[in-house]
Here is the input.
Amino acid sequence: MNAAAEALRWDLSDLYASTDDPGIARDTNAALAEAEALAARHRGKVATLDAPSLADLLRAFEALLARAYRPSAYASLLFSANTSDPAGQALLDQAREALAHVSTTVKFLDVELKTAPDAIFDAWASAPALAGYRHFLRATRRYAPHTLSEAEENLATLKSLSGAAAWNQLYDETVSAIRVPLTVEGEARDLTVDEARALRGSPDRDLRARATRAIHQAHAGQSHVLNFVFNTLFQDHKIELGLRRYESPIAPTLLDDELTPAIAESLMATTEKNYCLAQEYYRLKARALDLPDFASHDLLAPLPGGDRTIPFDEARTLVLDSFRAFSPRIAEIAERHFDRRWIDVMPRQNKRGGAFCAAWLPDLHPYVLTNYNERFQDVSTVAHELGHAVHFVLAGERQTLLNYGPTTPMAETASVFGEIVLARRLLEQERDPAARRSLLAQRIEDIIATVYRQVMYTRWEQEAHARRAEGVVTVEGFGALWRAQTERLYGDAVKLGELDHWGFIGIPHFIHSRFYCYSYAYGQLLVLALYRRYLEEGEAFVPRYLELLAGGGSGTPEELLRGVGIDLHAPGFWQLGFDTLRDLVDQFRATVS
Ligand SMILES: [Zn+2]
Here is the structure.
């Protein structure tokens, strides 16, 4: 391998030298021994500990987890870099097993923190000795009011195998068996749903229209089974809500995300108030494409000029320069990932697909994997993953293990921010008018997809669950709700097709990760609003932003943001994000004569 190619591959020696490194077994055994010692000393007695002793216990817990994570971190990185290496596979298997063993051994801690009497728990939560663990303690405890007895929980888990889990699987099997018959370039083909979906981005309008119709028809063919799955799982959720005393169908998701219903509602209502902006954009897009009318099958039509290739060296410079213009500190952290080979850049055989940033421990730097393919989207992915890396590095400098990882709704803050900073740079630099317009369109459509569509999905989900609570819903019933929400989003700017009401049925989130869609909207909109603050406040915003990232997972999203002067409840907060979008739409308008 030549030096240039080598420089773009991971160097994992900060973890272990090789799969034979004796350090792997040493760490694994030490972690197990420490876990067993901890259990021998404290199991069944956690509630008797005073605050300083519990703090000691939590520190020991963090130390043994840190040891336990290293071998599995190493194994999973090795495996990602070469999924067909038997040594890596064997190590991964071993490491997973060891980690599972450690987790089971220390499981008592989680259980006893959850079930300690209220008076004891409250004393811990307010004790100065545990101040650093306050969020961890509260977060562990938050499900307590919704937890059933141990016997009931065990029964529920067992019964879910033939219940919800089985219905999920039936949905997957049914959907993945769907084939979409379509004539492409004169040839009759039987496409997978993903292949057919990709054709909705074709420059050929007739093909886009036929692909869209064929996808709906193919799903309609399975609607008898799929609608039954929807009805069953929605009913299952209703039963669960009652047993676990949740207030609304979305409540468990909000609890996961540590957000309040008021915040979610204000986010969604503000988005709906700004649907007109999406409509305005599509009217402009119709003009840019020179279409007499704009239909739902034109939503993903490409604008010319978006196909420039970007060699990796240029991408690296683009990302680092854009980060540097925002904050030299952020650029310096990102640059370290290239210089010290903490990033594995290029696609190759047997390397895992996609991209990720993996981080385990505050005192171990993150590792980034990408499959760089010279498209604009790939540059954006590099900025995204390095944004994650910066987040972890800054949090690692300030937090201990239990406060390190950002909570779910904050997890995409730095990554999306990185993308925005990069997009701004690209737009400033791009001289070719067609390429610039295409960049703007990609940016705007990305926001529409992650904010508007997700809010629309969530509204549908709320209505669909409410309707199901009153009784069985026909597929036409769900479809009519879908059509109404789609019409609300697109207004008269987009003409819906006669089969568009089938749109809901192929969206797996409604089945697998209920109400998760709103988390995408939250993440993107939060970052757009933060970015707006930066544009308004300039340099003064940067140290506050770094402070926010350094907070890691040490508080709820509300607490972390309040710490840097941002109030999610402030009227007009979510509107800031749409002001950013408004600017982009105005710039796009200027390119459409
Ligand atoms: Zn991400």
User: Anything to note?
Assistant: The beta strands are 179-184, 187-192, 343-344, 356-358, 367-369.
